[in-house]
Amino acid sequence: MANNTIQNGYSQQITNYLSRDFNKLKHSLVEYTKTYFPNVYQDFNETSPGMMLLELNAYVGDVLNYYVDDSFKEMMLPLTEDRRNLLNLSKATGYKPRPVVPSFVDLTFELIVDADTSDLNNVSANASQFLTLDAGVRVQSTSNPDIFFETLQPIDFKTSSSIDDDFKIDSIDADSGIVAKFKGKRKVMAVSGESKTTTIQVGTAEQFKKIVLPETNVIEILNVTDDNNNVWYEVDYLAQEKVPISTYYAQDPNRVSAYTDPNDSNLPVPYSLSFIRTTKRFTTEMQEDNRMALVFGNGIKRQGQTFETTFLDIEQEGISLPKTNFSPEPLNTRVGQFYASLGEAPANTSLTIKYRVGGGSVSNVASNDLVTIQSATTIPASLSISNLSVKNETPSQGGRNSDSVSEIRHSAIANFATQGRCVTKEDYEARVMSMLPRYGSIAKVYCTTGGELWSQDNNDLVTRLKDLMSVMMTRMLDAGQGAYASQEDVKSVDLSDLFTDLVGIDNQYFTANDKDEWLARYETLRQFTSNNNNLPTVDIYILSYDFNGNLCLPTALIKQNIKNYLAQFRILSDKIRLIDGYIINFGVLFDVLAYPNYDKNIIKAKCIEKIKKHYDIKTMQFKEILYTTEIQSLLTQVEGVKAVNDVIFTQDRDFSLPESSPQAFDNLLYSKTINIDGETININDRGYGNLYDFEQFFNIENAPQGRGVVLPSVDPSVFEIKNMDTDIKGVVR
Length: 733
What we know:
The protein is an alpha+beta fold. About 20% of the residues lie in helices and about 25% in strands.
């Protein structure tokens, strides 16, 4: 509240700084006028000109306070809503939002070649017709001709691996009875998208030059070259000087085959790995309009060279070393005499940028949809591919649209918390969800402490055995007691004899009848723990999306990509195990009472839409609890609904009705199998095979947390309404 104080003989006015909205500002202005201008203005009627001026000032103050608060809010990552601010703040955390996530799939290529009949006693495939295709073979979708997939690595029929089929007999000549054709198969990973190229003219050197690509939904940058055929490399940040390079043997002039040892044809090594240290580097940024920008360094090299070495000796760039006369001049891009500490800036050249565009949820295609080879480059070039065919035996997975504001915010916060390493389970979850799009994407992740292969009873066994050894050491090391006079005697004793003596000493833990069982379990535990490779410390449960947007189990390809990706972040002692998560399909039944004169069909449709939005699979997570009270609250908000009689979650029947009542859905919401003569037959393929006892949570006597509170399963699982149109039913009375 404003008042007067006397300071140094002068009257000092005190302003109320707590007034921030319109009404409070108006009140403060009125009180201020009454206090300090009582004789100047006295007409405080709402229709007076003076009150108009006071209200205008209150309005301006209210608007300014709003923008001050909003600007402050937009400076904080957890609160910002503006996409542009969010992108800038995410850069500070090291997180790169994704404009779009592509879909990945395993493609099976088949090559038919003639038989080599030069030796009729040893007919084989004609090796001269074996093909090698460069990465980037483009395959077109049948269901949507605008969708393309491109292979990520070369396809080589001249070498084989454990996942490839050797050339086998395909056909036999009917007249001669001699083998005519052989067929070989190769599997390779492909990503949705189409390669495109653009050329950018660059003039004088410019610090941190930014080049924005003309198209949206750029998945990745494939390569960047200049007029002198110099390659520019993408890095995570401009200060990064080390770049790993994988070179395929067919593209390496120093190698003649995929085998490192000419005498051993069973050990193919198609790729060679080297490291280069280079100043020709750039990083990428996503713009507000979902276009990708390339950002280059802050200097140029006058006579630059790219150095290649087996050991990376990092040069001290721009640093004055103690007790030396080394005093570098400040970096100047116009002079260009010194190494750029953050990479080079291109100058007086043209950059040819090849990139891949595509992806999104529409790129999740069904199996056997990719059967048309649109283009391919052979090594050497210009060889025929007429006998080459392709198909995808499994559907593609992982395609997603651009990250929402909420997804960017939470991913950026999580990425900052990890700080480039994985220690806690939250670190692993954040890393998996932020994996680069080129390696695939998953829908849900849940991390636990690994190696828990023993039940609680067996964990008790470990504790008992430790206690038992302590008892044995204290009671059996005394001279004359038993046959054990020292620790060495104990270590060398036969395990069975030891247990026999332990039973006689103290039967608190063991009895004679249990000895064999306990001995077997202990031996199993000993063998298990003795092999560290079989003892994971981190279990990661993962799920993916299918082409319909429903949850599905991830492919082996995605798992391998995740494991390789996490290898650079995990601590040395962590051993990771990737496990398929569990999916529990369910349906919702509701019973509501409507007000008179409301259309019951409209009310029912609005109720179903409320439930659909609440249980959108994008919002569902592992170990989530289902509450009927949440649905009841949502339904009461629907116009025309007077009361909610009941809400039930189920996979088959309505638990409020007698058990003999017909099931609520036309089909069960879980898979059901029967066994006939030793053969397992699936009689319902709508679900994913996971039956869950929902009834226990609606039985008043047995419900552990109260009726309608559905607890998650012990095994990490996600609740999902698979078919929103048929698995949500209701009655409006």
